Amino acid sequence: MSANEGALDRILRVVVGLAIISLVFIGPKTPWAWFGLVPLLTGLVGFCPAYALFGLRTCPARKA
After folding, report:
1. Residue 8 confidence (pLDDT) above 70
2. Is 46 left (phi over 0), alpha (psi -120 to 50) or beta?
3. d(CA 29, CA 23)
4. C-alpha pair distances (Å), 53 with each of 40, 48, 49, 56
5. Is this model's pTM higher than 0.85 or not?
C-alpha cells in the first residue's frame, strides 16, 4: 500500500473532510456528515482505495 495522492490532493481532502464533519456540530447537524471521515482519513494516510482500483495517482513518480 504505497501513497497514491499528491500533496495538493491530500491537503484538499483534509480540508473538505473537516468541513463536512463540521456539519455534525453546526449547520443541519446530520449524522450523514460523518462520511467526511473518508476524505479526512485518506488525506491523512495518503492512500485512496478508489484511486488504486482505477489505477490513478496524483503523486509524482519517484526516481529509483
Report:
1. yes
2. left
3. 6
4. 19, 9, 6, 8
5. yes
